[in-house]
Amino acid sequence: MEQYVIKGGVRLQGEVSIGGAKNAALGILAAAIMTDETVTIENVPNVRDIRVLLQAIEGIGAKVTYVYNNSVQINSGSISDINVDYEYIKKIRASYYLLGALLGKYKESQVALPGGCNIGSRPIDQHIKGFKALGAEVDISYGKIHTKAEKLVGSHIYFDVVTVGATINLMLASCMAEGDTILENAAKEPHIVDVANFLNAMGANIKGAGTDVIRIKGVSRLHGTTYSIIPDQIEAGTFMFAAAATKGDITVRDVIPKHLESLSAKLLEIGCQVIEGDDSVRVIGSEELKSTNVKTLPYPGFPTDMQPQMAVVLALANGSSMVTESIFENRFKYVDELNRMGSKIKVEGNTAYIEGVSGFTGAQLAAPDLRAGAALVLAALAAEGISEIEDIEYIQRGYEDFEGKLRSLGALIERVDSERDVQKFKLKIG
Ligand SMILES: CC(=O)N[C@H]1[C@@H](OP(=O)(O)OP(=O)(O)OC[C@H]2O[C@@H](n3ccc(=O)[nH]c3=O)[C@H](O)[C@@H]2O)O[C@H](CO)[C@@H](O)[C@@H]1O
Ligand SMILES: C=C(OP(=O)(O)O)C(=O)O
């Protein structure tokens, strides 16, 4: 199995270009199947979850062509099946977007119950409530969800919790329904706006995305388009926090600084310098990080997908900090690993109590999920000595060429798949 070997202690420096947003791309690729015309999507991140979704889309009969780097063309005129039976699809969260997209287009869909990172119970009751409100019957059996409707009719749907997945899924399912749909208490993440903009570029009529009320007027058909996905807020944030963890100086390029404001604010609070450009953000780490408290919240609050990376940085700050996770109940699985590197963190309920330490030491680690895995990489980069991180397939779900980008900033990191390669890396770096 592949793993990362990392020799820590290098201050990361330089510029890194950020790719397209995974969580926008997942919604947009699913939306692309809703027209029979060709859709070209640019800035698609080449990460594991995206490859799985594209294979599932091919599996139901659509034609997927990789045009050039990070650009994909999808033609769904040849879709022959509404049953998504690709074995890996159940492992990813976004499999549920095919449920909404196929239902919206063909009035029927069947997809394996979604997986994704094991960070809590992750119910999908709000998706189901929404599909039913549009007139669909929803049945769950043998690990699959089946939806079917005679016709879909617009409805007024109030989400009981702010949910990214259900907000996107209901935009997909309702954009070709008869009449108007109103989504209330909708999520406001940049990827919600991106999916809505993409659907509108295909001829949908969606207004209000980015606010908590989204109004959708059903249209009879969608058409082809060319669209470029927004930059990944979480990939950018991970590199910004890598600068803080390693006392480095990193400029993330090709980003939308507005989407990074909650992260920039916390970095400033703990003593880092943050310099915003038009499409870049430079973070200069501080010799003396200050403690602070953080609570994860829906956008524009501090994102749960950055919570583990933030905790790593606070574990290296002077004094006591608190990190409260308010979105998912099981997102502290990296804490035991981090404590083995010398951090002092105690978890009680949904809060991690952190006593800052002056440094970490390298250790044998395993990535428990995608962002926790990325956070352990940051910790290893900051640590004295060598760390080996297993289960990096989680990290590959959401970061394109993570090790290559880190190496370009000076990191001593190698992706290896045998003990011999580990030894070779150790010899090389001395
Ligand atoms: C593929 C993707 O885009 N994943 C992101 C998406 O996940 P995902 O779409 O699964 O997360 P949601 O925004 O839906 O979940 C937010 C909260 O709502 C709850 N909930 C959700 C749906 C539902 O029907 N019922 C319900 O109770 C969840 O358990 C959670 O507590 O948003 C999360 C929150 O920003 C991010 O961490 C994930 O990276
Ligand atoms: C939790 C994440 O992804 P998913 O919802 O696909 O598990 C993530 O991107 O951090």
Query: What general outline do the C-alpha atoms trace?
Result: globular
User: How many discrete structural domains?
Assistant: 2
Instruction: Give the count of helical stretches.
Output: 14
Strand content: 15-25%
CATH class of the largest domain: Alpha Beta
- Total strands: the figure is 24
**Which class do the helix and strand fractions yield?**
alpha/beta
Portion of residues in helices?
25-40%
Q: What fold name stands as the CATH topology of the largest domain? A: UDP-n-acetylglucosamine1-carboxyvinyl-transferase, Chain
Small-molecule components bound: uridine-diphosphate-N-acetylglucosamine, phosphoenolpyruvate
User: Strands of the largest sheet, in order across it?
Assistant: 22-23-1-24
The CATH architecture of the largest domain is Alpha-beta prism
CATH homologous superfamily grouping of the largest domain: Enolpyruvate transferase domain
Poorly predicted residue ranges: none
**What is the distance, rounded to the nearest whole angstrom, between the alpha carbons of the first and last residues?**
24 Å
Function: Cell wall formation. Adds enolpyruvyl to UDP-N-acetylglucosamine.
Binding site for UDP-N-acetyl-alpha-D-glucosamine: 93, 122-126, 305, 327
Modified residues (2-(S-cysteinyl)pyruvic acid O-phosphothioketal): 117
Organism: Lachnospira intestinalis
